[in-house]
Design a protein that fits this description.
It is a single chain. The C terminus is likely disordered. The longest helix has 25 residues. Strands 3-2-1-4-6-5 form a 6-stranded mixed beta sheet. It starts with a helix and ends in an 8-residue tail after the last helix. The protein has 236 residues and is α/β, with parallel strands linked by helices. α4 packs parallel to α6. 46% of the residues lie in helices and 16% in strands. It is built from 9 helices and 6 strands.
Length: 236
């Protein structure tokens, strides 16, 4: 049975297209393949640049830093003379819990430096990050992501934990990032002039987005009563 004319024409066109593709100059074939490769590569690059969680995972997976060596480099203060009389007294009188937000990929960089410098002057430090490592200074926040869009959840979780477990052990609660440097002696001196039993907080008060504003930036500190308002997901 003879095929319909239209079907025969279609088959001839398909065969002709295959023949032309197979016998066209090699540079045209390579050009098409190169264009396809460029498109796929561009999509991958855009995905990596936009997906912060994926980027952090890659950095954490392949980053190799000697944490002990880094900490030793910044921890030697034997050659510096400092009169710590007032600082030592305030350390006992003004107790500060430092809640520092970080990510796993920063354990060998920012966290190492922070832990070897100003964080050791906190009465207690907790690093909020997603980790399975068992450490008394680590607060697991794996139920939240590690990108900037999850910071509110991490802050609330940190203060909820502090309120439930440590609220009566410290006078003030400092929220900071792992790229923040705090002169704890100066902070304690400032806080010593404020009543930690009266609700209040110190820091930069943003007046954007929300009518009442909000506390944000590299660091801010609140006292016991203010810290308790974060329990149950509330904001300071």
């Amino acid at each position: 049975m003879a095929l319909p004319m239209k079907l025969r024409v279609m088959m001839m066109r398909q065969n002709m297209s295959k023949f032309l593709w197979k016998h066209q100059p090699y540079w045209k074939q390579y050009l098409v393949k190169l264009a396809i490769f460029a498109v796929i590569t561009s999509v991958i690059v855009i995905f990596v640049c936009l997906d912060e969680d994926f980027t952090l995972w890659i950095r954490y997976k392949f980053q190799k830093v000697d944490l002990k060596k880094l900490a030793e480099e910044y921890s030697d203060e034997s050659t510096i003379y400092v009169d710590k009389t007032v600082a030592d007294r305030l350390f006992k009188q003004v107790k500060v819990l430092c809640l520092i937000l970080t990510v796993p990929s920063h354990l060998g960089t920012q966290v190492g430096v922070v832990n070897a410098t100003w964080a050791k002057r906190c009465n207690k430090v907790l690093y909020a990050l997603c980790t399975n490592k068992k450490d008394p200074d680590f607060l697991n926040t794996c139920k939240f992501g590690e990108s900037k869009s999850h910071l509110i959840g991490k802050v609330r979780h940190s203060f909820t934990f502090a309120y439930a477990n440590l609220i009566h052990d410290y006078d003030w609660f400092l929220k900071a990032d792992d790229d923040t440097y705090v002169v704890m002696e100066n902070l304690r001196y400032l806080l010593s002039h404020h009543d930690s039993n009266s609700p209040g907080y110190l820091g930069y008060h943003f007046q954007t987005y929300l009518e009442q504003g909000y506390m944000s930036g590299g660091a801010w500190v609140c006292d016991q009563p203010s810290g308790s308002t974060t329990d149950g997901g509330g904001g300071v």
